[in-house]
Specification:
The complex is a heterotrimer. Chain B is an all-alpha fold. Chain B is about 70% helix and about 0% strand. The longest helix of chain B is centred in the first third of the chain and has 37 residues. Classes of the chains: A alpha/beta, B mainly alpha, C mainly alpha. The interface between B and C is large, with 127 and 121 residues.
Amino acid sequence: MKRKIAVAAALAATMLAAACGSSDDGGTTPNADASVDGAGKTLKVWLMVDAQSGRKNVVDEANARFTQATGAQVQVEYQQWGDHLAKKDATLAGNDVPDVMELGNTEMPKYVFNGAFAELDKNQFENSANWLTGLSAPCEYEGKTYCVPYYAGARVLIYNTDLFKKSGLEAPKTYADVLAAADKLKADNSSSKFNAYYMPGRYQYAGLAWVHGSGGEIAKQEGEKWVAKLSEPGAQEGLTKWKDLVDKYSVGDKTKNEVDQAQIFAQGQTGMMYGASWEVGSVQEQPKDPNDPDSPKVKTKVHGKVAAVAMPEIPSFLGGSNLAVVGKSQNQDLAAQWIKVFTDTKSQELLIANKVLPNATNLLDKAAQVEGNEASAEAAKSSWFVPMAPKWADVESALVIQEMLGSIASGQASPAEAAKKADDQINTILNS
Amino acid sequence: MATIAPTSGRPRRRPARESDTVTVGRSQLATVLANVVGIGFVILMAFPVYWVLNTAFKPSNEILQFDPTLFPHNPTFDNFVSAFNAPYFQESLINGVLITLGAVFGAIVVGFLGALAIARFRFYGRKGIILVVLGVQMVPLVAVLIPLFLMMQGFGLTKNLLGVAIVYIVLILPYTIWTLRGFIYGIPRELDEAALIDGCTQRQVFWRIILPLTGPGLVATSVYGFIQAWNEFIIINTFNDQSQQNLMAWLLQNQTQRGTYWGPMMAGSIMTAIPVVIFFLIIQRHIATGLTAGAVKG
Amino acid sequence: MSAVDTPSAPARPTRPGGPPQSHARRRRRRSASSGGATPYWLAVPSLILIIGLLGWPMLRMIILSFQNMRLRELFQGIAPPWVGLDNYTRVLTDSVFWTVTARTVVFTIVSVSLTVVLGLAIALLMRRVAPSVRIAMIVAMMFVWAIPQLVAAQIFRWLVDSDFGVINYLLTQLGLDYVNHSWFAKPLEGWAVITALVVWAGIPFIAITLNAGLTQVPKELVEAATVDGATPWQILRNITLPILRQLIIIVTTLSVIWNFGVFTQPWVIRSGQPEPGYQTLATYAYTVAFKNNNYSLGSAISVITVVLLFGVMAYYIRQMFKIGDVD
């Protein structure tokens, strides 16, 4: 803003300055336990659209409790994934900001590093001692906490029990079992659209999971510098293993990412896939009206024929979202209190019922007891996370990993060539 | 040589001179061929439109199947209901109509004055104004997005319809000025002069002569502004909250991380295009008038 | 903003005037009044809006391109450091930028040629077909014209979807192996789809405009030429095209400006994440600025884009001055 003031002043456009003076003075930490009279105030919360389409009851319930406790109203805005970062950047640069913002855990470090959010007192939030590290690590910067884990998701092996039964197969327990099952399924099904193991080419959290499964890594901090490690033997082994799987068992589009995989699996022509935990449900039934999560469910062709296990020998990426108090917010105490309510055990239990993983390890066991959550809760116990570099989000938005995997899957480049190129790009971006 | 001639112009009115049978025969063949190509063109142009309709009337399990059906086997209005009742669809529809009409009206009023200045007066700085008007069409809008956003926010013009409408006016203004200038130019200067001699004031000349005669031009010009304002989504999505979006920004919402809702999206697309089609149908006659206006008056 | 399918046809066709018109104009021009302060008052609202709303942001864009503005500066209001020509050096020495530029230029040339040639062909065809076919053609084009760009791009994405798309299905029915065929694995094929989309959406504007222009071709002239034994090709080249010439120049330059700035189509068809092979100058500038948060580098790319367009712009403005008889 100062820059803007400088230019504006230079042009004698002082009227703009008034709009620019309200940035956070960075004094005190918002207090989630303070008793604030919120009557007449409205808290503005930005959540991602999934909260609206997938678990609106969690939001409604938390809002009701929050309003009862503080008297403040809550206005929730649901953001689209498509271009949400441009909109968030523009908004955070201005003075009319939301009080609470949700960001994906891989995007968080960039914002924390660039000072967009207010520091929080970790101890004021329930279960904070047991937060999943994959979620809470991006919130930490120089020993301080800037956001609160909201929910997590793990990836699991989803398989078609009907096809498994026909081929006389059991749930795989080792990676070798997976390959053997895929071979058998491939031999028993001849359709040109049949995927023994559906694996889209640009699925970065699959490809990288195979990298971690073979002991590889994406990048490591060495001294001051970040060094990409995708060309190292472990990572190469993982990528080769992944490529073999794609080549042999997946007939799908190599240029797609994973967004369509549930719909493809639902056609009943796919034996196995590597999916997010909630996809176990969405491949079996879809709301009749996709814009209304409460509308009656329509069963797909594979209804009742789907099961999931943790993907053997492949540790899962722990995805998820975090919530932060915007540094320029005028209602920081209220914002912290809303986050506190929205992430407390009660809200988390509602989340679990919606087949989403909770934010803390002590709640994982509870999650494992909910039908359909067992596999993902299990998978979350052996998980990995992207490098904690402030610029990691730039690697993601530059599609470096997706490009690498896409070119490997489509045969345009060998794992070694593709990894070399990706390593160069990652080194440039992370150290720029 | 002459035998090939009929393929241009209008063969039937052509003065028939030599070897009539041959030329007529060829001409008929050429006409048939032209009609066949024309029908082929219609099919090619219409196919995507047909597929949108086909998709919009299918239930979701029929949309998502490996072998698509060429017509809905279980036609349903569910997708339309879904889109129409989806969060913020109706608000977005109303917002889009208000913003578009406001922007088109504003651009026509302001642009008409500007066009009048350029077309009817010679003054110092006129060329500069023309350069500005023509030049700003080249500026990539996304490049000025953040500065524009910050500036409009400083004026309190984000998170409401007015700010977006003003930006849209500026977007469509250059084209509007330039096109209207052409129409005003088409009105013979002598008409004004005669009216002035007959005792009309400058103002009366404007209201009684220039404005009515530019009428078709105003309508024709508004087509461009209408489409431009109706189609924009980057600015409005950045400037405004969910309740102040237009239909384009709303359509983006159907693309979630959980896949695309093709049915409601196609149904929404149809409902999005309908206001434009209606607008076109209403003014269709005037577009034609506008197109030939200059020729008649020239 | 660019919009291949947006602009309206009007007015332009009114000006491909023959000699008599321009005589009349010249006479009129001579009698144009100076009007004292009136023209300034009339022009002021337009100028305030254009300069006020675009001038300042454009100035900021240029200033930004000489600084290094990142997220930290944006969020915290720290003055970004001046870096002189660094951003420009970086852009101009980056092979990625030149690849993107070359791709944008090639796309522009191919798509504009196709749109204009097909548009002209359709306009000529419209004068040859039965009235009922002509009406069908106009209705089909009106519908295509009315479909918003964003929607059109979504439609094409759906048509060529590798798993559920109708195009792969139909090609497979014809006996070709297009099962699960990915139209975007090879950028050349992907660009064929994007070009088809842009041409499809762009034809109505050009065909309808040129068709209106064709009404200006004097029938007597064509008939006389026919009688004199001119071939259709000769008539096209020596009568029709010269009359349409200025109109064609205008629609071509407009198409160049729009297609050079193509953004929505590749952006939407690649689901908001265009791969390096699908970047154009506009999407590239956007990606650098907003996805990589390098606002200064993005601004530099935009400034260079405008400079590149300047050649086209100068030509366009000159034509406008000439055709519009404005000076």
